[in-house]
Amino acid sequence: MSLRHVLERHQVSIYLGAVVAAVATAAAVPVLDGLAAMISPALAVMLFATFLQVPLMDLRKALRQVRFMAALLVANFIAIPALVSGLMPLLPPDPLLRLGVLIVLLAPCIDYVVTFAHLGRADARALLAATPLLLGAQMLLLPAYLGLFLGETGRTLIRIAPFIHAFVWLIAVPLLLASLTQAWARRSATGTRVGDYLGLLPVPATALVLFVVVGSVMPQLDAARAHAMQALPVYVAFAAIAPFVGFAVGRLFRLPSAGSRAVAFSAATRNSLVVLPLGLAVPGAGPLLPAVIVAQTLVELLSELVYMRLLPRLGEDP
């Protein structure tokens, strides 16, 4: 059995182990200087590894799956914002708390959602091929949605520069490097070998990001525990409702069961790892914003274990 197969087979345990290790490390060493500075570079490596799994031919083919892509966009950028709008009255009026909840719940996941979708008998390959589209769309739409939900208060808190920085370093550069690596692999035996080695990266890179993010934020989670607890009812309600919203959108677009389940996983799984640097860029963000964002990650990882068992039972092909 190859190392890549072993990593992919045990990746859920590896991710949960990374979170546990981060919590334990943060408890043993309360001040982890420099860990927060590793978040953006680790994210860039993880997204490069994610994009590397998407052959350019498959990406072009996936973009021609009009119904699936339309369902994915409608679920994540129309239906889910409507759900989030309905949940916001559960929160107190603190603008930073609301910003933290919004910034994570309005951004669909583009990394480990593929893993959980595969284990939940969803069309993980189509979801993987859609990752550049989902990431680009959320970077463009998130500032507009935050302004819409928060009004004038949101406009004073939101800075456009971090979104531009994230688009360049977390989308454009990793996607370009992944494209160049794939082109090299097609033309050279050395490139093929390098591509095979880089194929081992996705699981370790995602585990590293989880460790870095959780480890750097855990000390702040203690300081902002009350705010994180205020967000928990919204996160739990979202986790309970969102997959059914996504599945319903998939059915509305008459997708097969595997496609509808993929939309359900996408709707329910949020992009907390990638949006954390955006939250950290907000003036006066710490410790509240990082704690509120990472609290959603912890709720979500537990919820995914339920989704993997529940979503395969939903629906038959129309």
From TrEMBL:
Pfam families: SBF. Coiled coil: none annotated. Gene3D superfamilies: 1.20.1530.20. Belongs to the arsenical resistance-3 (ACR3) (TC 2.A.59) family. It comes from the Bacteria. This is Arsenic resistance protein. It is a multi-pass membrane protein. InterPro entries: Arsenical-R_Acr3, BilAc:Na_symport/Acr3, Na+/solute_symporter_sf. Its main location: membrane. Keywords: Cell membrane, Membrane, Transmembrane, Transmembrane helix, Transport. It is found in: Cell membrane. One of its GO terms (cellular component) is plasma membrane. The chain crosses the membrane at residues 12-32, 38-56, 68-90, 96-114, 126-146, 166-185, 197-218, 230-250. GO terms for molecular function: antimonite transmembrane transporter activity; antiporter activity; arsenite transmembrane transporter activity.
